Amino acid sequence: MSFDGKTIEINYWFNGQKGNFDDPAHKWGLSQTGWYPGWGTKVVGPGPEITNFDTLSPNYNPFSWEQTTGIFSMDFSGKGLNIQFYDTGLFKYHNYNWNGPAFSDVGINNLPKIIGFRLTTNMSFLDASDIKIMDNGNTVLIDWFWGTFDKTTYVNLDFKFEIDPPPGGKYYPFKGTKGNDYITAGKGADVIAGGKGADVFVFHKGDTGKTKKKADLITDFSAKQGDKIDLHKWDADSTTKGVQDFDFIGKHKFTKEAGELRYQKSGKETLLMGDTNGDGKTDFMIKFKGHITFADGDFIL
Ligand SMILES: [Ca+2]
Ligand SMILES: [Ca+2]
Ligand SMILES: [Ca+2]
Ligand SMILES: [Ca+2]
Fold first, then answer.
1. pTM for this one?
2. What residues flank ion ligand 4 with Cβ within 5 A?
């Protein structure tokens, strides 16, 4: 999915210490009319779009959001959205739940629904749980509360849209970078590769099916690299109120206890399976290329 020619709305929830927002050179080409500072619309295209943006003047802090001296650029080059920061900033928390930029579709579904994403960042305190897809897939929030910025900070988001073409019946494959990626591919039978680095593959309820045909496939899981399967948001026991953790039982068979997670080899693949209602049957499955021997440490449960 490319952003090319699409209109999205950008809300960067932070104020700054230098620069002047009213300076046309620093407006990102965004119209401010009718919006509070920080909102605007932008028709995005390939290549670097927004660079050297000086944030708000020191005294202009109407909403008491984040403060930073950060200057950043945004690059909508093709399918990814890259946010690069420069400068070290004063970073202040003002008691808001969300502290970071938000990206919204503008108008009536110019962008298809976002149902998954890949996050690559070297920012401390930012992981997949800090990315929220809101408004039925039309808004993405990033919470980098407690994070710190410097010249090398990067946050890269690559979205999966509902209509991503399924080559070979699959959604557009998620490929991680050589760094540490958080990948949540959302619904549909996905093919996911983390690439090098310690990658976290995050699954929410319903993200992968219960048959081999409908299950997500991870093609390069590597415990050696520190890759992990994150199921902690998936309720392991549908028979008990609240969200319970899975119990990894290795290659043992299900014992009709809700929340059991087991694996087995199947052909050239390894299947990871969970029983969430305690009937001893598989309720969801994740496939892995090759034969993998899983251990407790491979999971975030
Ligand atoms: Ca999926
Ligand atoms: Ca990676
Ligand atoms: Ca990896
Ligand atoms: Ca439950």
1. 0.72
2. 235, 237, 240, 244
